[in-house]
């Protein structure tokens, strides 16, 4: 079976401005906001590397989730791999939680990266040790915890890695 960036009606796409009305109405409860931020906060962050990519998880063309794939010096806080990207600000709109969109989106991630970021061979992330639901989700979708820790602004984070096979030309 050929890898795809689509899983039935769920797909990953790079953010486009026409989706702004949808993501501006994202709702995240306070217990989630302690671990992430709203999509537009990340998209409009002036400190973000210009090479960073904003990704939407779509269900039937409706944005239900968001994350950024950051590049630049920030990545090197999590890995020495110069061909890695840092996954940040992962969130699912509260109105769509509990439908498996996070899991489906993360399962599509390796193919999305292979197609859109040709030399990237790893995705890394930091997940707060108190966010056990996210840790379990990342493990179920292929991320590996090598017991590395990063002390971030909101406390201790597990550094998790996802290898991305490079496509053969």
Please explain how this structure is put together.
Helices cover 22% and strands 34% of the residues. With 169 residues, the chain is an alpha+beta fold. It has one domain (6-163): 3-Layer(aba) Sandwich (Aminopeptidase), CATH 3.40.630. Strand 7 (144-152) and strand 8 form a beta hairpin.
Task: Write down the CATH class.
Answer: Alpha Beta
Total count of strands: 8
Mean pLDDT: 87
Between the first and last Cα atoms, what is the distance in angstroms?
18 Å
Helical coverage, percent range: 10-25%
Calculate Rg over CA atoms: 15 Å
Return the CATH architecture.
Answer: 3-Layer(aba) Sandwich
What is the tally of helical segments?
5
Secondary structure class reads alpha+beta
Order of helices and strands: EEHHHEEEHEHEE
What portion of the residues fall into strands of 2 or more residues?
Answer: 25-35%
Strand order of the largest sheet: 1-2-3-4-5-6-8-7
CATH superfamily: Gcn5-related N-acetyltransferase (GNAT)
Largest sheet: 8 strands, mixed
> Within the CATH hierarchy, at the fold level, what is the topology?
Aminopeptidase
Number of domains: 1
